[in-house]
Structure to design on (203 residues):
C-alpha cells in the first residue's frame, strides 16, 4: 500500500501503547483512535525527508519496507510518529497527526502534564493541564501522550509496546476531509497536493 492510500486507510484505526511499569495514573495500555494523517510520497515529494533520494542517519528508517515506524525529532522539542509505506527504498511514509483517547486517558493526561511541566518549568512559564479533547491534537502532543520517542524508530508497527489495531475503519467518504498538508510552505508545488486526511467533525 502506498502512502496516499495508507493515510486514508489509517483513519479510524487504533494506535495502542502498552506500558510495562506500575504508573499511578494507570498501568496497562492506552488506545487512541487515529483522526488525522498526512501522506509523504518519497523521492518526488519536496515535503518528504526522502526528497530526491536524500539519506542520512536520521532518515534510514524511512527507507525500510512498509510497516515500520519512522520517528524523528523536530524543533528541539517534539517527536513525530510516522508509518513507513510502500516498498523498501521508496521513502514513503504517513505522519500520524492526531487522535482521540479511546482507553486509559488518565495515563495520557499524566504523560502530557509531565512533558508540559518539564518544558515550561525550563522556560519559567505557568504550568498547564491539557484539555481532554486536545490530548493528542497534533503530532507532538500525540507522541507526548503516548510516550513515543526514538526508541521506536525503525521498529515494526506490530511492536509489543506500540502497535496498530483494527479499530473502526471509515468507509463513508462524506465523513472525511481531504486537503493540502500544513506547515510545508517550503515545498513548492507539493504544498498544494491534497494529502492530508481528517474527520469532518474531528472524530
Amino acid at each position: 500500500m502506498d502512502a496516499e492510500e495508507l493515510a486514508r486507510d489509517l483513519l479510524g484505526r487504533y494506535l495502542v501503547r502498552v506500558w510495562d511499569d506500575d504508573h499511578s495514573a494507570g498501568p496497562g495500555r492506552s488506545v487512541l483512535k487515529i483522526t488525522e494523517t498526512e501522506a509523504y510520497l518519497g523521492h518526488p515529494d519536496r515535503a518528504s525527508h526522502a526528497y530526491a533520494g536524500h539519506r542520512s542517519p536520521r532518515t534510514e528508517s524511512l527507507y525500510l519496507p512498509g510497516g515500520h515506524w519512522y520517528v524523528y525529532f523536530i524543533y528541539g522539542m517534539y517527536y513525530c510518529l510516522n508509518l513507513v509505506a510502500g516498498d523498501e527504498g521508496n521513502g514513503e511514509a504517513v505522519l500520524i497527526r492526531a487522535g482521540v483517547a479511546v482507553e486509559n486517558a488518565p495515563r495520557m493526561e499524566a504523560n502530557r502534564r509531565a512533558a508540559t511541566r518539564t518544558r515550561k518549568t525550563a522556560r519559567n512559564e505557568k504550568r498547564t493541564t491539557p484539555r481532554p479533547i486536545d490530548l493528542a491534537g497534533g503530532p507532538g502532543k500525540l507522541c507526548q501522550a503516548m510516550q513515543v520517542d526514538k526508541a521506536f524508530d525503525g521498529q515494526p508497527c506490530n511492536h509489543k509496546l506500540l502497535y496498530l489495531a483494527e479499530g473502526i475503519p471509515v468507509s463513508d467518504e462524506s465523513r472525511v476531509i481531504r486537503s493540502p498538508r500544513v506547515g510545508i510552505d517550503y515545498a513548492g508545488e507539493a504544498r498544494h497536493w491534497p494529502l492530508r486526511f481528517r474527520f469532518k467533525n474531528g472524530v
User: Anything to note?
Assistant: The CA atoms of residues 66 and 85 lie 4 Å apart. The radius of gyration is 17 Å. Residues 3-199 form a domain with the 3-methyladenine DNA Glycosylase; Chain A fold (CATH 3.10.300.10).
